Structure formats: C-alpha cells, structure tokens
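[audit] Reproducing an earlier prediction to check determinism. Same input, same settings, fresh worker. If the tokens differ from the archived copy the diff job will pick it up downstream; this log only records the rerun itself.
[audit] input (372 residues):
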Amino acid sequence: MNQTRSHTAALPITIRRLTKRYGPLYALDRVDLDVRSGEFLTLLGPSGSGKTTLLMALAGFTRPDDGSIRFGTEEVIRRPPHKRDVGMVFQNYALFPHMNVQANISFPLRLRKVPARDIDERVREALARVQLEGLGERRIDQLSGGQRQRVALARAIVFEPRVLLMDEPLSALDKKLREHMQIELRRLHESLGMTTVYVTHDQREALTMSDRVAVINFGRVMQLDTPRKIYDLPANKFVADFIGESTFLPVEASSGKAWCQGRELLLADSVSVGGTGRQLLMLRPERLKLLPDEDAADDMNVFRGTVAQIAFQGESMLVVVRLEDGTEVGVRGVTRQQEMAAVPEVGGHAVLGLDRRDTVLIPDDDDAGGGR
C-alpha cells in the first residue's frame, strides 16, 4: 500500500441540508456538516439520534429525501455505494465466514478487477498495516474478536479508498481490548491519512480518537468542535449532559453578572454573561474540590452542603454532597491517604470550591434540537 497515494486520495466531505424522514419522524433534519480532508471526525450521539443514518447516507446505503453530499467537488448523493470509492467497517464486521482471511481482504480488489499479480502484494501490505502478518490462510472462525476487527479494517483499506467510514467497529470488544484498539485505529489513521468518519455512542471513545466531534441528537448537529472544546465548553445542556458527568444549577443573569444560590458567581475573564434571565451552571465532579472551610476558597465559587455518600471506585473516590437546595453533586478525587483523611464522614458538613476558570455557564435549553 502506498502511503503517499493514500494521503493524496483524502477528500473533504461537504454535507448540506441533508434530510431523511421516516413518516413524520426526521432521522436527519437539514444537516449541514463539513469534514476536512484527512480528518478523523466522529459522529457521537445516543441511540436513535441519527448518527448511523448519516453514516449510511455517506456510504450510499440510505437514500436521503433531500440535500447534498459532496466528496471533494463531486456530488455523490445519487451514486451507488460501489461507485463512491468508500471503505466501510460495519459494527458486526460483515466478514465472509466461508472465506479465509486472504480471500476476505482480497474481495474488494477482485470486485474492482485488480490484476491477480497485484492482489497478493496488496493483501500482504494490508495485513502488515493491521499487524496480522502471516494469518492470510487462517479461517475467520479461528480468529479472536480483535483479529476479526482488524481483518474487517484491512478489507476496508486494501483498495485505498478516498473515504473511510466506520460504524461502531469496537462495540463487540471487551473494555481492555477496545481501549487498545482505539489507540491502534488512531495510529493507523495518521499513517494512512484517509478522511475518516467514525460513529459511536461512547463519549470516551470519541474524545480519545477524534480530531473533531459532531454531537448529534434529533437528527441535528448539536455541536461540532474539538474534543477539548466539546468537553470544556458545551454549546447547550444536551451536549453538557451527554459528554462527561454533569450537574446543573440554575443561574440568574442580569447586567453582565450571574447569581447562583444567592451568591454572585466569580467568572473567568473570558466568560461573558449574555442578556438576562435563566442560565445553568455546569458542575463536573473532577472540577470540584472539597475544602476544609470557606477561608480556603481563594478565587473560587463556594457551595455548602452535607456529605450524602462516599463511594470507593478504585483509582478514585466519589463523594456525593447534598447542597442546601437539595441538589446532589458528585466530587471526584484520587484516593491518596491524605485526601481521604480530609473527607468528612457521611452526614458531615462539606464545603465545595469551583475555580472561577472552571465556572462554565450554558443556555437553559432542555429541549435543544427537539422538534421542528
């Protein structure tokens, strides 16, 4: 496989007003999305959000009702799947059980009438790419789950497609192997340089692997951004709630200031309070600190409450604090002996601190993206 050729083949994808209806329901609702050439972009969302429908529309297996899909400058929305030059890795791998590894990987080449003298060499190169050298004669039922996933990936890249699409390819693997394959897939993407669109419902997987993430719900893109910005600066409550662990407290805003639980919030210099009315303060467990008292809250927003629960979670400890208004907030810290000793007992008084730099306000929009 020629690495330079793969980089040259990478294409941007441009999606405009893409719509797919099933009766009165919109699986895709006028989606606009740009995927950069050579980018690893993940479509992330809950079941039924529209992410797989969007991927299948890119592959050509789902025909949208309206809109445009361009690979580079070419409109492909009416082009059949086998003429889109797209590599596809399915959730169940879709390997041919009656063929060995060599035959499975060579299938796309034979379909494209690649000369027989070139097929063996390209299959060997694909096997090397996915670290399965020497397994060409192995039967599919003799492979582990991780090896089958690699065969499916080798089959998708062996003909050097311009675009690589993957539909939750790691979902059948156990946690340890899945995390290992996330790193391997990312490394392979960097080596191939293909434009890659990846579907998952696993937020950690999306944050680990992606250049950018498109969070999808109700058939719409809720936010498109880098993993760090998606996590640190969510565009709305749905994104903040779906990515990571969050608790939300109501905030009243007026005249460029914000109040929460009767106190004016300290905000980062980069945060502006837009307009008036209700917003939400996002609290993440790893951003909160247990303080010995309010005097230790230098440049922090302070919340008082009572310890409701303490849970040991191996590498960390989760302390659940019930605030004065009844809201329960999680605080997560490493289980070092000195920090454990500082945690009040269940029922004890707790003071929480949130650094002003971690004080993030988001719109109070419970139905973001819902309906039309």
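[audit] rerun output stored. Observation attached for the diff report: The radius of gyration is 25 Å.
[audit] end
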